[in-house]
Write a structure and sequence with these properties.
heterodimer, A: alpha/beta, Flavocytochrome C3, Chain A, domain 1, Methane Monooxygenase Hydroxylase, Chain G, domain 1, five-stranded parallel β-sheet, five-stranded antiparallel β-sheet, about 40% helix, about 15% strand, B: alpha+beta, Ubiquitin-like (UB roll), Fumarate Reductase Iron-sulfur Protein, Chain B, domain 2, 2 domains, five-stranded mixed β-sheet, two-stranded antiparallel ribbon, about 10% strand, elongated
């Protein structure tokens, strides 16, 4: 299989404009003859569904939540990047492009990333026009802040809830199209299979989560905007329902899955407090603008602290190790996420971690409070401090926060070309669901940017090119391909319900998560990965013999919903391990212990691994087959990322 | 801690429901309320009983999916807190906790503690937007907005659409929810163009959905987990009167 990225010819800065001119257009009067399915209603899905509806296409949108407004984009806190250069501090499209390519450790496509930086400016205009209440200065213009390691202030934000405000903007645009009848919305409906006719994506099979009814929907194209797969780890900052099932079932129908091992571990989350824990809560990265990260200088002090013989405020200044400031004087506490996370793990592995479990570091605001006063800090971070206090019952104004890295985002996803089409004609993937823009590590405030770029400004152009070459004829849902896919869904469901074993779905999920976290988390090595692969296989075999799913299909059955998702996580987890095992280098969020510099930094191997690893499904239990798309860098020089 | 739970169980929309008592042991005060229910559900599953259905997703207090009427209060005893952010340290060993779904005619029960809040979506569809298509909009800084106005609009925009206001109201009124969106867009220059039709259409849809009238007791604002202010209702009433006095709804 040859992977054609379909990157347009010409100079980097002109590619997108040229491509927009070269794509075929669908006559306005003919758009209504096409149907498009959009699965997922987060930033990428809601923006795409709304915009495609505005253009005149007939759209069907699906989400598993009870309302499109609940998709997990809503939980993004920090902000959204855009190369507006409103602050006159030297930002530009090229700089945003460069920062994103470099931040991704040179494992993303230049052309895609450049386009992302280009359309970033349009996103902000669009959101403001919708009434998204971004933070403003007293003069009435938009405020910006520096975020996640950027040295310019290009992040637009809406207090600590930028994700909610952007999603409500997209949701409002979606609602308008629903009211016009251009978008038909199916909430509480989960995609369980992709339907292909003559090698093209022509529809989906879904389960109505209230009645259990299995239904088919036919269309001319299918857009998956179903988010990331961080919940493979069980504990993550994702929502409880976030899952990989739609993407994974498309993968099983032939869509390649790219760079699955590129997962982002976010450095500032509230540490795990007990075995009952169901999810991890992120503390916005913006806290690192004012908070200082430290652990005790010696293992002895850390031990006394953990035993409760001393408290944090007893530790003298000279006994504190501000390790990020020490190791990375230029960026200090603002190093990118992968670097911050790895260093937290390092100091905890040395035995210098804090908290009862020893798996935490301090994020200290004492200096900032001294410098700016408590009211100023409260104005910036009040809601985050409150959330921290609610969860931990500790007051972060009086003692430093305890934080630890947690799984947050997945850079990998379905392989797509420049048009965001997978290798299956007519099947698109947008937002976190695809692999395209963040390489091996995503920068802060770039996820919202990518989701909205894909939905508002990329797919509305590129999907037209495909549809213009697609006949109007509809495929009936009575077509054998639909019946076969429905039967497939019914048989998986029946199998899950009929096992009637002894172990709960959550129990399997937790066991999988533990394997993934221990061997395919912040640091990986060949031996551990090989062991993990065997363990996952064993666990998966046991799942299909011993899982306990109560109830029936024909009802609201949350255990059954979870069982479908965990069944897929058990397969995807193995692919992540395969990918991590084959990539004999360290880059971004993928840190292989065998490949590091003497200073414990990631050691890339550009000669052998500057490619996208796209995996093909070859049947149940079979080894996936690797396809490579070489990455060509013509506009940036590959360098060792240094934040010193 | 050991607890006694009384939980509303209802098979589906048409079935009659009832409170069922479950003893639960060994709950850690650091658990969230929903994690406590996870523990109950795992126990039920192991015993071969059907777990309790409840809505939840982000567990960070922002998606608005979780609900629950806990001991007679929407989202439980803590002010300004969604159920997912409520921790068991706010309860005592030996407590009996009654857990019910949102109770409102416009929010029919799907199952157990899961209710149908699609009425809220339909109200938003009736006018909760600025009618702009993607593209062709002015530069973001071409519309300066005074910070005080932007902040006020923001306060209204923080609504998470959970429905606690309706559950807390003795009339099951949705006024606080509807007014939050009406105020946000009426305050902002972008929303002023359609302010009259918007408030008329959203209020009309609210009435169609069967929500009750507002009698200004303020229970909604008191129980709102994100602190949406009662001022928004005053503002919506003003908007509504103004719109009706010079209606642009010609249809």
């Amino acid at each position: 299989m040859i992977l054609d990225s379909k990157i347009p010819e010409g100079p980097l800065a002109e590619k997108w404009d040229k491509h927009k001119f070269n794509v075929k257009l669908v006559n306005p009067a003919n758009k209504r003859k096409y149907e498009i399915i959009v699965v997922g209603t987060g930033l990428a899905g809601a923006s795409a569904a709304a915009t495609l509806g505005e253009l005149g296409y007939n759209v069907k949108a699906f989400c598993f939540q009870d309302s499109p407004r609940r998709a997990h984009s809503i939980a993004a806190q920090g902000g959204i990047n855009a190369a507006k250069n409103y602050q006159n501090d030297g930002d530009s499209i090229h700089r945003l492009f460069y920062d994103t390519i470099k931040g991704g450790d040179y494992r993303a496509r230049e052309a895609n990333v450049y386009r992302l930086a280009q359309v970033s400016v349009d996103i902000i205009d669009q959101c403001v026009a919708q009434g998204v209440p971004f933070a403003r200065e007293y003069g009435g213009l938009l405020a910006n802040r520096s975020f996640g390691g950027a040295q310019v202030s290009r992040t637009f934000y809406a207090r600590g809830q930028t994700g909610q405000q952007l999603l409500l903007g997209a949701y409002s645009a979606l609602n308008r199209q629903i009211a016009y009848g251009k978008v038909k919305m199916f909430p509480r409906t989960e995609m369980l299979d992709l339907v292909m006719v003559d090698g093209k994506a022509r529809g989906i099979v879904v389960r109505n989560l209230i009645t259990g009814k299995i239904e088919s929907h036919s269309a001319h194209a299918v857009v998956l905007a179903t988010g990331g797969y961080g919940n493979v780890f069980f504990l993550s900052t994702n929502a409880m329902g976030s899952n990989a099932t739609a993407a994974w079932r498309a993968h099983k129908k032939g869509a390649l899955f790219a760079n699955p091992c590129f997962t982002q571990i976010h450095p500032t989350c509230i540490p795990v407090s007990g075995g009952y824990q169901s999810k991890l809560t992120l503390m916005s990265e913006s806290l690192r603008n004012d908070g200082r990260v430290w652990v005790p200088k010696t293992v002895e002090i850390a031990q006394r602290l953990r035993k409760g013989e001393i408290t944090v405020n007893d530790i003298k200044e000279e006994d504190r190790d501000y390790y990020l400031e020490r190791k990375y004087p230029a960026f200090g506490n603002l190093v990118p996420r992968d670097v911050a996370s790895r260093n937290a793990k390092l100091v905890c592995d040395e035995g210098r971690g804090v908290g009862a479990s020893g798996l935490a570091v301090y994020l200290d605001f004492a200096d900032a409070i001294k410098r700016e006063g408590q009211p100023a800090i409260a104005a910036k971070y009040g809601n985050l401090f409150e959330m921290y206090a609610k969860i931990t019952d500790e007051n972060p104004y009086e003692r430093p926060m305890r934080i630890y890295p947690a799984v947050h985002y997945t850079m990998g996803g379905l392989w797509v070309d420049y048009n965001l089409m997978t290798n299956i004609p007519g099947l698109y993937a947008t937002g976190e669901c695809n692999f395209s823009d963040h390489g091996a590590n995503r920068l802060g405030a770039s996820a919202l940017m990518q989701g909205l770029a894909d939905g508002y400004f990329v797919i509305p152009y590129t999907i037209g090119d495909y549809l213009a070459q697609t006949p109007y004829d509809k495929v009936s849902t009575d077509h054998p391909a639909f019946k076969e896919a429905e039967q497939n869904v019914i048989s998986i469901t029946q199998r899950l319900l009929s096992i009637k074993g002894n172990r709960t779905v959550d129990d399997f999920h937790k066991a999988l998560g533990q394997i993934m976290w221990d061997y395919c988390g912040m640091a990986r090595n060949a031996e551990g990965l090989q062991f993990a692969k065997q363990e996952i296989r064993k666990l998966r075999d046991e799942f299909w013999q011993n899982v306990k799913v109560t109830g029936v299909n024909e009802e609201l059955n949350q255990t059954l919903e979870k069982a479908h998702r965990v069944a897929d996580f058990l397969e995807l987890g193995e692919l992540m391990v395969d990918d991590a095992l084959h990539r004999n280098e360290s880059c971004g969020g993928h840190f292989r212990e065998e490949y590091q510099t003497p200073e414990n930094e990631a050691l890339r191997d550009d000669e052998n691994f500057a490619y996208v690893a796209a995996w093909e499904y070859t049947g149940p239990g079979n080894q996936a087959v690797l396809h490579k798309e070489d990455l060509k860098f013509e506009n940036v020089k590959l360098t060792q990322r240094s934040y010193k | 801690m050991d607890l006694t739970l009384k939980i509303w169980r209802q098979k589906d929309r048409n079935a009659a429901g009832q409170l069922v008592t479950y003893p639960l042991k060994g709950i850690s005060p650091d658990m969230s309320f929903l994690e406590m229910l996870d523990v109950l559900n795992e126990d039920l599953l192991v015993r071969g009983e059907e777990p309790v259905a409840f809505d939840h997703d982000c567990r960070e207090g922002i998606c608005g999916m979780c609900s629950l009427f806990i001991n007679g209060r929407a989202h439980g005893p803590e002010r300004g807190t969604t159920t997912c952010q409520l921790h068991m340290r706010h309860f005592k060993d030996g407590d009996t906790i009654t857990i019910e779904p949102w109770r409102a005619a416009a929010f029919p029960v799907h199952k157990d503690l899961v209710v149908d809040r699609s009425a809220f979506d339909r109200i938003q569809q009736a006018g909760g937007y600025v009618s702009v298509n993607t593209g062709g909009v002015p530069d973001a800084n071409a519309i300066p907005i005074p910070k005080t106005i932007a902040d006020k609009a923001f306060d209204a925009a923080t609504c998470i659409q959970c429905g606690a206001c309706v559950a807390a109201c003795k009339n099951a009124s949705a006024m606080l929810f509807v007014s939050a969106k009406v105020s946000q867009l009426a305050l902002l220059p972008q929303g002023k163009v359609e302010r009259k039709t918007r408030v008329e259409n959203m209020v009309a849809q609210m009435d169609v959905e069967g929500f009750g009238a507002c009698s200004n007791t303020g229970a909604c604002a008191a129980e709102c987990p994100v602190g949406i202010s009662l001022d928004n209702i005053a503002m919506m009433n003003r908007e509504y009167l103004g719109a009706k006095a010079s209606s642009e709804n010609v249809a």
